[in-house]
Design brief:
With 196 residues, the chain is α+β, with helices and mostly antiparallel strands. It is built from two helices and six strands, in the order αββββαββ. The longest helix is centred in the first third of the chain and has 21 residues. The two termini are 41 Å apart.
Length: 196
């Protein structure tokens, strides 16, 4: 068991180092993710990848949510959205998008900040930025997100601050067993008496 624990710890440490090296130039937490680029005529252009929701394309492998710990600085997660809500910031220049997601091993709270002082967007522009994100990230949708995993002072819990997000496909369940098993289940007139 101790060897297995050492291997898992070493694997996690290597993953953290690799992600940190890859994302040394990553934007800071107060930098808002960019939903879509502006075209020449000033209108938003659709992202090149139809699966892209926010930020850059994610090609890194995702980790299971049960592997998240305070030691992980950057993480890529894939999971199903279970809760999605938006809230306007105090200044009115920011929309806070918070959502929970699960991969059936654990769950994680995630946050995104749209707008901010750097963007200097009007409330109408912020709502336009939010619409495609809200449409793509409804509860039940599967997404892959990348960001920094840290303690959120506002919610008092560990939170993934999302920089990039894209649609993902729901994983299919596979039976790779060499020898297949079948489970039989049956009800009788006495089935109602099970609990007694």
């Amino acid at each position: 068991e101790q060897e297995q624990i050492k291997r898992i710890a070493q694997k996690r440490e290597e993953e953290v180092i690799r992600m940190a090296e890859k994302h040394q130039g990553a934007p800071e937490e107060d930098a808002a993710p960019k939903p879509a680029a502006k075209g020449k005529n000033g209108k938003e252009e659709a992202p090149a990848d139809p699966n892209q929701i926010v930020g850059k394309r994610i090609e890194d492998p995702s980790i299971e949510m049960r592997e998240l710990s305070e030691d992980v600085r950057f993480a890529v997660l894939t999971g199903e959205i279970t809760r999605f809500e938006t809230k306007e910031g105090k200044s009115g220049q920011t929309i806070i998008v918070s959502f929970d997601m699960t991969d059936r091993t654990a769950s994680c709270t995630c946050k995104m900040f749209l707008g901010g002082k750097r963007v200097n967007a009007t409330p109408e522009q912020l709502q336009e930025m939010l619409q495609p994100i809200a449409a793509a990230m409804k509860p039940g949708a599967w997404v892959t997100v990348r960001g920094s995993y840290r303690f959120d002072e506002f919610s008092k819990e560990m939170t993934l601050l999302v920089n990039d997000a894209q649609k993902a496909s729901k994983p299919t369940r596979r039976d790779n067993a060499e020898r297949k098993r079948v489970e039989l289940h049956m009800h009788t007139v006495m089935s109602n008496m099970d609990a007694l």
